[in-house]
Design goal:
about 210 residues
Length: about 210
Amino acid sequence: MGIIGNIFEIFTHLDFYLGEIIKQFGVYTYFILFLTIFLETGLVLTPFLPGDSLIFAIGAIAAKGFLNIFLLFLLLSAAAILGDTVNYYLGSYFGDKVFSRSRFFKKEYLEKTKQFYKKHGGKTIIIARFIPIVRTFAPFVAGVGKMNYLEFLGFNVVGGILWVALFLFGGYYFGTLPIVKNNLTLFIFVIVSLSIIPPLIELIKRKIIK
């Protein structure tokens, strides 16, 4: 696979290699984890990086005493909030250029995006945190649509803290249980599914009303 291939494999599956990372890098593990969450939320080119599963696994590792759970909460919350902020500004700066120069992105899409975020922006930012892939694109689209930054920031902070807290402390208190540890993927899928139910119900209601 080669050195680059091995590095990419470890970085994109950091949740599975977390124990080895801690052994190799010690205190620098905190920086690696911060960077991973920052990139996963901050760049539309890196939605493939681990998010939910990594934070949950980190919580489980912290429960064993290898990492400080409160320091992790502060660092990962900051990474999530800063990541969305950077993503927002990238969308705000490059958005008009993308829609004006690309034949794949029509101007009408931009106008619809602006209207959507004007009406549903806050809830969208929070809900998107719990949906893989979508959380990476939501802040970028918010920037493209010129959503009011202070409004975005408020929901960004709330969403980032809730996202990290749910998975980090969930892993801390339940991640070491055999039934959870052996069914981690299923457990995360259930949580993500539950987070999607509210917007789906609202969407169905609007379709019925129309």
